Amino acid sequence: MRLQWKYTLIINSFILLTMTIFFLINDRMVKQESVLSVIRDYLKGATMRDIASRIQERISGENDPERLAKIIRTLDLTEKLREADLEIVDINVTDSNGIVIASLTEKNLDNKIDEEGLQRIYSKQMRLRYPPKGYYGRWVVEYTLPYIRFSQYEYEELGALQIMFSARGIASYTRQLRMRNLLSITLIAVTLTIFIIPLTSYLIVRRLERLMETISTVQSGDLGARSEESSNDEIGRLSKSFNRMIDQINSEHASRLEALGNLAAGVAHEVRNPLNSIAMTIQYLKDTIEDQPESEAQECLDVITRQVEELDRIVEDFLQLTRPIEMNWQTVDLKGFLSDIMRNFVSSMEIANIKLTCNYSSDIIYVRIDPDKIRQAVSNIVINSIQAMPEGGKLTVTTEKNDVQKNAVIKITDTGPGIPEENKDRLFEPYFTTKPDGTGLGLAITYRMIDAHEGEIGVESQINRGTTFTIILPYS
């Protein structure tokens, strides 16, 4: 399934499920509150009608404003109001034209009942409503009904009795409803956020991060790294394409190495034949003039011999870099193995005024290696470190055992001038060197030897503070 559809389906399904759950919870709460509200409103409505009827009876037949005001202000309705939890905000009495002529609070004496209210009065109908703008800033229930101002024979003059009951419960309920809705929205938003962020991270971000880590590993030179994504969505297909690309690069790299190895073997053969002839000729000439050991010719022949040996060493290094590696596996004690290697450099370090410190792990570490190849790899690093400290310094060899990752760690640290940052990434490239007389093959061969052991090699360096080479080898 495509990632876009998978992601959209999961997100929308979860949103729908979350909204349904919250709807059901809210619906249940609303039902309960509705039942209670209907009961409360029924009781209050009955009390309102009873109070209105009592006032209506008391003012029936009255049209004098002063007497009307006195009647409505002396009414004792406390008990009834308390029973139904009601409060009268104001009582207004109007004439037949809807103009207020008496009021409980005298706030509304200049006002007039609207046309709709008058039509109901003339039809002898009552009106119950919530004034949309309230009553002087208060929530009220307006209860308006007709009363008889004057009656004679068939003639009857009607006025209006308007009672304003407090509706503070409505305001409170509205606030509670708004707060509950706000809380529901907040909970939904938080729930969706808590779910969507990990889902996005799992489906996209983490997978892309793992792919980027694999790409970085390949960029650092490890062509054995592979993405483990196996899904059929966009990221999975990208990972598979990346793996195929690395396989193709490895295949082409192996083909080129094979071709380079064949070329190197041919060149080495062609170069070594003349070198062997030169070496034999030099030996013959030395035998010829052996009775003149102090002659200039003898010195020249010695110089030529050393150069021939150097050329032979370069050819051998070149062959090691290109020919397939054949491993001779053995299990060795790492401490004893390194001690044996370092003994070969004791005299060289004494001459160079370099102090050797060995901090071997107290644990016995057995590693399965090809001793000759690891010896050459470690020796190449030690030689470089000695050459980096021509005026003396300190060389430290440290071993550690990592039981979690099942490997042994070798650290070789010098106090030389350090390696510039721009040279670190090229340090293990063939033929890269900063030495005037270097070939650039030593560390490239070292890297190849460590890689053949399925190990790792890295370098940390600070200018004027020294360099540390770290070799990691699996232990048996």
Features:
Helix Hairpins, five-stranded mixed sheet, 476 residues, alpha+beta, Heat Shock Protein 90, Beta-Lactamase, rod-shaped, single chain, five-stranded antiparallel sheet
What secondary-structure arrangement, pairings included, does this model have?
Blueprint: H1 3-59, H2 65-73, H3 78-83, E1 88-94, E2 100-103, H4 115-122, E3 127-129, E4 140-152, E5 155-166, H5 168-219, H6 234-288, H7 296-322, E6 330-333, H8 334-343, H9 346-351, E7 354-359, E8 366-369, H10 371-387, E9 393-402, E10 407-414, H11 421-424, H12 442-452, E11 456-462, E12 466-474
Parallel strand pairs: 7-9
Antiparallel strand pairs: 1-2, 1-5, 3-4, 4-5, 6-8, 9-10, 10-12, 11-12
Helix pairs in contact: 1-5, 6-7, 8-10, 10-12
Textual characterization of the structure:
This protein is of the alpha+beta class and 476 residues long. The protein folds into three domains: 16-169, Beta-Lactamase; 234-322, Orthogonal Bundle (Helix Hairpins); 330-474, 2-Layer Sandwich (Heat Shock Protein 90), CATH 3.30.565. It is built from twelve helices and twelve strands. It has helices at residues 3-59, 65-73, 78-83, 115-122, 168-219, 234-288, 296-322, 334-343, 346-351, 371-387, 421-424, 442-452, and strands at 88-94, 100-103, 127-129, 140-152, 155-166, 330-333, 354-359, 366-369, 393-402, 407-414, 456-462, 466-474.
Shape designation? rod-shaped
How much of the sequence lies in strands comes to: 15-25%
Distance between the termini: 44 Å
Report the CATH architecture of the largest domain. 2-Layer Sandwich
Mean pLDDT figure: 80
Output the strand order for the largest sheet. 2-1-5-4-3
Radius of gyration: 50 Å
Structurally, the number of domains stands at: 3
Number of helices: 12
> Which structural class should the secondary elements be placed in?
alpha+beta
User: What fold name stands as the CATH topology of the largest domain?
Assistant: Beta-Lactamase
Name of the CATH first level of the largest domain = Alpha Beta
The secondary-structure element order is: HHHEEHEEEHHHEHHEEHEEHHEE
Residues in helix, %: 55-70%
Low-confidence stretches: none
CATH homologous superfamily title of the largest domain: PAS domain
Largest sheet: 5 strands, antiparallel
Number of strands: 12
